[in-house]
Design brief:
heterodimer, A: 816 residues, Immunoglobulin-like, 2 domains, five-stranded mixed sheet, 4 helices, 51 strands, 60% strand, globular, B: 325 residues, mainly beta, four-stranded antiparallel sheet, 19 strands, 8% helix
């Protein structure tokens, strides 16, 4: 009965709002300097206290009662604008905003209004690309994902890694989207750099909880990344030469201001620089003819946009990037007796993403915005190794050719079509709804072996067949203004997944509430149910190209989570945004690898290598941001716990007892500061501290029982079996804490205006006080010779391996 | 596996050529040694147990301390039966009691200066092998048999090895009233015309569930997933089950005189009914992969309250077959 009453109340509110005499103001908000649409830009009507924000395409729609209106348009770092007019009909107001003369020197970062005190959304943070670029990083490589690691609620993986863990979730529980397209492999160089080139990116938003209903498919986070559309006024660009890579970005109009492009490319060149060293080393080998070997990665972002009219726009986004390891070696030998022999070794590993998206914006009416997207995304790993030998003998005269080639490929591929609508029927409701369909192809790994020219010729293909699945989603959400103080976002997300004759579905309610206590202080609460139909098989601390995406199966049901969060948001002196959020999340059908399981490059029988259980995470996050002034940045602190329980029949881990998750860390602190001294000089600093990760370490050893029958005999001897007598005793899973991690990174920028542009020298130091943070802790046995006894004694030592000591770097950027 | 070894080597090189390694202090709680009890018992044999002390993982001690002054008390069906006698270093044995199927066994071990520990198991009834059928299956592969002369550096072909497997179908009936656990032990002794013998034991990665490497046979290695051939009756509870497995039994044809021709192969097949504790212990022991960097750590099963180790039991049903080429 209570539910029915609430429904009537909702409908009454909706109808009341819809049938008042209202008119709609709509339009796009863009940057006056380059025509880029401004995402999440705010507009606010001062009399009615109604407002909204622009969507991902810079479009807004606000319906207001007939009469005089005073509209304030604002975007942080830009001079606010207002429009005063009498609203007597539906009106289009396009706004071009200019960077604030007063504030441009000092304002680089701010949280968007929708996420701050006034918005209903919580557990979400915008990180403008300007702020990301000011954060000092490893080898000076600006990294979007590493910037996210500095936010409360987000934990970095191992030292230097771009992998991240949000509110107790694993890396595969993060949905990372580039222009609305999922990116399956977000890392270069085994996870130490992300694939996102900051030069190509306009906006990054992280959602940790209270997910709007238009997002789904992962349990723990959504990272929504938007690429630049391109300048529609004139050509601009920049070139950066760094320690390990160089980058190029160029943008501008094509023909007229209706069509724009943005192109970015990046490539590392360690392989080119190392080539002389490799040649010098290998060429010393007798008979060496050709020596090429190395590793590099590259990525290319390209975007075209075309404005057909005020109501129709088309966007084409393309991203591709690969990591490549290669070796081409040719060696020959000649013997007067045996003739000559030529040997070639060719190795080529290649892994990366290719994605493209075509999006069509159409404004159906000034209240209804539609976006239609068709996209393709693929991650693949291809490995080839081959040797071939040509043997030429003169007496008797003969030529023999032998070759051994080995290949492996795996990956995932999606085709997707979706339609999203934004509908603002009245001042109190802002509705989003849509549908999408994705056709997944999982390529679980195929090995091809060919041997020719020998007695044991072979041409074999081994591996699992591709797995195909269908995923369909529909959603609806309404951002409702219930009163001046109370605002809510209510939504439903319904998803289905069909794979190998197995059908799964999930209905996920979403709710966010904001209660405004005064203009500076609000309380928020949120709830989100989420489901996930795919898993990433990986059991290492680093990202490997062999990690495999696999779908749910009949035995392994979809992961599901429910998260509640509450928080308080306070704006101090219009300068500081302070927030505290508490959350509790439970996760069901989690998978963990069985004791001893390894997934290196093979998904075969993966269901037998995992156990299914549940987990829960809870914590408190504090964030204090300074958004205006010469000094900007934030201080974040997270207190959290993440635990798991695997006690289902036949699915026992840790003897069915609760254990801490691998990335359960109690304390995480981050301090990010940027300071602009003048137009010519600014600097940034980052300091992070975190409790050590949990790991499993055998703290005792004991004499194990010999097993009869394995040593070619049925006798139950008390003599030991080699390597297994000394049994490591692990009391509980993840029973050991690595040492805590801490790091200070510093960076300074020296700018100078030149005739045709600006040059910037960046000097940065990663891990400035050289704190050796743990990557891996293990034991090592050391033998010592005792000269007096003539005997060796053995001693076990606890050894910590750290990857990155103090690393200085320098880069040069020319911007025109 | 060579590919993966190569992948690993390169990846490890990439990471560790810049890495720093340092010896660190252990900041956790230094745990004291605990009493370790190991005993696998079977009917028709007196109870034996091995008692020792564990050692802290950073201990400089390189051998285990055997407990020679402990008291090991045997309880059968809740009643004290006898005190085991110290017979050798760390080893204790009963004098007269031989377990019978259905008995509930408990060992209580007291060690001076240490906690009293205890463990229990029950004796599983024997599962009789109903029949074993064998069949030779040729594999359509021929491998040259060669000898290498290290002095001249030449390789000479001396014959061919024709691929052939010996397939077994072992039938037994599972007890429907309880959860049962089994272990298959297959041993061969090959006799040659020159009077030499060679012994082999075999492991079968997939013996019942049909999951992985159905045809994988060969000696157990550290990478074998089911090193000890254990399985449960989950898929055939209460049924007469035909357990199918194969071992290689190639036919060697020599082109030279005097080669050591195989004249007979003695095969011993043992079907053990094992206790749950022994099953879990062997499963976790087999899960340890000694040379895979990326494998998950393994918690070895222990059923010793207050200590570590395992008390398990088995009963065997044995068939012996002699096969001529």
């Amino acid at each position: 009965m209570k539910k029915i009453n609430l429904l009537y109340l909702f409908l009454f509110w909706f109808v009341l709002g819809s049938f008042s005499q209202n008119f709609t103001i709509s339009g796009h908000i863009t940057d006056a300097k380059n025509g880029e649409t401004l995402i999440n830009s705010s507009l606010y009507e001062t009399k009615s206290h109604k407002g909204t924000v622009t969507n991902s395409y810079g479009f807004y729609s606000l319906t207001l009662p007939k009469g005089a209106v005073n509209l304030m348009f604002s975007y942080v770092g830009y001079a606010p604008q207002n429009r005063i007019f009498k609203l007597t009909k539906d009106t289009v107001v396009n706004i071009s905003m200019s960077e604030s003369v007063e504030l441009s020197e000092v304002t680089v970062f701010a949280n968007r209004k929708e996420l701050g005190v006034h918005g209903s959304q919580m557990s979400a943070i915008d990180v403008p690309i300007a702020q990301i670029k000011s954060i000092p990083t490893l080898f000076g490589e600006t990294d979007v994902l590493k910037a996210l690691q500095l936010l409360p609620g987000v934990k970095a993986g191992t030292d230097g890694s771009a992998g991240f863990y949000v509110r107790g979730g694993g890396p595969d529980q993060n949905l990372i989207m580039l222009d609305g397209v999922p990116v399956y492999n977000v890392n270069h160089m085994f996870g130490f750099f992300s694939v996102f080139n900051a030069d190509a990116i306009k906006n990054v938003t992280l959602y940790k909880g209270s997910f709007p209903a238009h997002f789904g498919g992962r349990l723990s986070s959504v990272v929504d990344i938007n690429m630049n559309d391109g300048n529609n006024h004139s050509y601009h660009g920049n070139v950066t030469i760094g320690l390990i890579s160089s980058k190029l970005n160029i943008e501008g109009p094509i023909g007229s201001d209706k069509t724009t492009f943005d192109f970015s490319a990046r490539r590392t060149y360690a392989d080119i620089l190392a080539q002389p060293l490799i040649k010098a080393t290998l060429d010393k080998q007798p008979g060496m003819q050709k020596t090429e070997a190395g590793y590099y990665f590259y990525d290319i972002n390209a975007k075209l946009s075309h404005k057909f009219s005020d109501t129709d726009r088309l966007y084409l986004s393309i991203f591709t990037g690969d990591d490549v390891i290669y070796a081409n070696i040719n060696q020959s030998s000649t013997s007067s007796d045996l003739g000559s022999q030529n040997t070639w070794l060719n190795m080529n590993w290649n892994w990366g993403n290719l994605l493209s998206a075509l999006r069509w914006n159409h404004i159906i009416s000034n209240k209804l915005f539609m976006n239609t997207t068709a996209y393709y995304t693929k991650y693949q790993f291809v490995m080839g190794i081959g040797t071939s030998t040509e043997t030429v003998t003169t007496n008797p005269s003969s030529t023999t050719n032998t070759a051994i080639n080995l290949g492996f490929h795996s990956g995932i591929e999606d085709f997707c079509g979706k339609v999203d609508f934004d509908y603002a029927p009245n001042p109190n409701n802002d509705i989003k709804f849509g549908v999408d369909y994705t056709y997944h192809t999982f390529r679980p790994g195929v090995t091809v072996a060919q041997i020719t020219g020998t007695q044991q010729a072979m041409d074999t293909t081994v591996g699992d067949q591709n797995v195909f699945s269908h995923e369909a989603v529909t959603y609806v959400e309404d951002n409702i203004t219930l009163s001046e103080a109370l605002k809510a976002n209510i939504g439903l997300h319904y998803s289905t997944f069909f794979v190998q004759n197995q059908f799964y579905q999930s209905l996920e309610p979403r709710l966010s509430l904001r209660y405004l206590l005064n203009d500076k202080l609000s309380l928020k609460a949120g709830y989100a149910g989420m489901s996930q139909y795919i898993h990433l098989l990986s059991n290492s601390n680093i990202e490997l190209p062999t990690d495999l995406w696999v779908p749910v199966t009949k035995r392994i049901a979809p992961m599901r989570s429910q998260q509640v969060s509450v928080g308080a948001f306070y704006n101090l002196l219009n300068m500081f945004d302070l927030s505290v959020e508490a959350y509790y999340k439970n996760m069901d059908n989690l998978i963990e690898y069985k004791d001893g399981a390894s997934f290196l490059g093979s998904s075969t029988g993966w269901e037998d290598k995992v156990d299914v259980g549940r987990g829960w995470a809870y914590g408190v996050e504090f964030l204090a941001q300074k958004t205006i002034g010469k000094t900007t940045g934030w201080v974040g602190y997270t207190w959290s716990k993440t635990e798991e329980l695997f006690n289902r029949p036949g699915q026992l881990l840790n003897n069915g007892q609760v254990f801490p998750a691998k990335y359960d860390r109690t304390h995480d602190v981050s301090i990010v500061v940027s300071h602009k001294f003048s137009d010519r000089f600014d600097m940034g600093a980052t300091w992070v501290y975190s409790t050590g990760n949990a790991g499993t370490l055998a703290l005792q050893n004991y004499a194990g029982l010999p097993v009869q029958g394995t040593n070619k005999s049925l006798t139950n001897s008390l003599t030991s079996i080699q390597n297994l007598t000394n049994i490591p005793y692990i009391s509980t899973r993840n029973n050991f804490r690595y040492d805590s991690s801490q790091r200070l990174d510093l960076g300074v920028n020296f700018h100078k205006k030149l005739k045709h542009g600006t040059r910037t020298w960046n000097v940065s130091v990663y891990n400035a006080y050289n704190h050796l943070n743990p990557f891996l802790t293990t034991t090592k046995t050391v033998s010592t010779y005792n000269s007096s006894t003539g005997l060796y004694t053995q001693k076990n030592e606890l050894v910590q391996i750290s990857l990155f000591p103090i690393i200085p770097s320098v880069s040069y950027t020319y911007k025109f | 596996m060579k590919i993966y070894t190569l992948i690993l080597s390169i990846i490890l090189f990439v990471f560790f050529f810049t890495s720093c390694e340092k010896v660190i202090e252990f900041n956790g709680t230094v745990t004291n040694p605990m009493v370790v009890v190991n005993s696998i018992i079977s009917p028709d044999s007196v109870v034996k147990a091995q008692v020792s002390l564990s050692r802290f993982f950073l201990s400089s001690q390189d051998t285990f301390t055997m407990v020679d002054n402990g008291t090991v008390t045997l309880f059968v069906n809740g009643i004290q039966k006898e005190l085991l006698t110290h017979t050798a270093s760390g080893t204790y044995a009963g004098t007269y009691y031989k377990p019978i199927a259905g008995d509930s066994i408990r060992l209580v071990v007291q060690t001076p200066g240490m906690n009293t520990v205890s463990c229990g198991t029950s004796i599983i009834p024997k599962t009789t092998i109903i029949s074993i059928d064998t069949m030779h299956v040729f594999t359509d592969s021929t491998t040259p048999i060669t000898v290498f002369d290290s002095i001249s550096g030449t390789t000479t072909k001396i014959g061919n090895s024709i691929g052939r497997n010996l397939k077994f179908v072992l039938k037994f009936t599972d007890n429907p009233t309880v959860q049962n656990y089994y272990r298959l032990v297959v041993l061969t002794k090959t006799h040659t015309s020159k009077g030499t013998t060679s012994d082999y034991s075999f492991s079968f990665d997939d013996i019942v569930s049909g999951n992985t490497n159905k045809n994988s046979v060969g000696p157990p290695t550290s990478l074998t997933s089911n090193k000890f051939n254990v399985f449960s009756d989950d898929l055939f509870n209460g049924k007469t089950y035909p357990l199918t497995f194969s071992i290689p039994d190639n036919v060697n044809v020599y082109t030279i005189a005097g080669a050591p021709v195989v004249i007979r192969k003695d095969i011993t097949i043992t079907l053990q009914s094992i206790s749950q504790s022994y099953y879990l212990y062997l499963q976790t022991r087999a899960a340890i992969k000694t040379n895979t960097f990326f494998a998950e750590p393994v918690q070895i099963y222990s059923n010793v309250d207050g200590g570590m180790g395992v008390l398990g039991s088995y009963t065997s049903s044995i068939w012996r077959i002699s096969v001529k080429p």
